[in-house]
Amino acid sequence: MNLGFLIGVLGVLILSHAAYSTIQYRGLLKITEEEFSGPPMNVVLELIVGLALCMWAALTFPGKFLSIHPDSDENRAVSLPDNSDFMIFNHRGRLFPPEIDMKF
Amino acid sequence: MGSSEKRSKDVMSDIPTFSAENLQNNLKVIQNSRTFLSIIAGVLAGIIGFTGLTGFVFYFVVMLITSVGLMAKAGFSADLYFDSWNRVLFDGFLGGLMSFVLFWTFAYDLVHIF
């Protein structure tokens, strides 16, 4: 989680620096009285880098995907209980043949 | 409240049953990713200076890239994490549109007008 968060913050910082550069560029254009057709090339590069970093952060920071299969290894609903001292197995059930294939 | 819905006679065929709690977690992850990227796309569109239809095209382009990224994150096998492909690709597509327009106008005003 930490690395994704840091990368996201870095991406946002790069984007805000690009915004500030564009503001300054527009101020320059106002002085020379030209039309604003698009941000300068280095700002565009900065925006692409910032977008790539933010995209990477957005895919890793919110969390992992969890498997929804009920019988995958990380979704075990049963496990050996901690109070196995109180469990006895010498009852009538031991005479039944095992029906399902149980995973341990 | 059990964390997985499972009946004992469905042990062999678990296609209609799945862990609903994990599915909700996955949907929340997608939602968060898409919302964050809508905001970033809005800020970007405002900085570049898109006006009109071009901005919305940019938003859909970013959302398509997000879909590809989410598919890659799911390892291109949606069956393991979702119940249908449509959830990964199209859920939350239009929900981020409002955030996009909000931050688009906000960034545009900030950079180009003031």
TrEMBL record, chain A:
User: One GO molecular function term?
Assistant: inorganic cation transmembrane transporter activity
User: Which of UniProt's keywords are assigned here?
Assistant: Endoplasmic reticulum, Membrane, Transmembrane, Transmembrane helix
| Annotated membrane topology | Multi-pass membrane protein
Would you name any one GO CC term? Golgi apparatus
- InterPro entries xrefs: MMgT (IPR018937)
Q: Subcellular localization, per the record?
A: Endoplasmic reticulum membrane
TM helices/strands, residue ranges: 42-61
Quaternary state and interactors: Component of the ER membrane protein complex (EMC).
**What protein family is recorded?**
Belongs to the membrane magnesium transporter (TC 1.A.67) family.
Record-given protein name:
Membrane magnesium transporter
- From which organism does this entry originate? Eutrema salsugineum (Saltwater cress)
UniProtKB/TrEMBL annotation, chain B:
What membrane topology does the annotation report for this chain? Answer: Multi-pass membrane protein
InterPro entries on file: Emc6, EMC6-like
Q: Where are the transmembrane segments?
A: 33-50, 88-108
Q: Does the keyword Endoplasmic reticulum apply?
A: yes
Q: Does the keyword Transmembrane helix apply?
A: yes
Among the GO biological process terms of this entry, one is: autophagosome assembly
Family, similarity comment = Belongs to the EMC6 family.
Name by which UniProt lists this protein? ER membrane protein complex subunit 6
Tell me what organism the protein belongs to: Eutrema salsugineum (Saltwater cress)
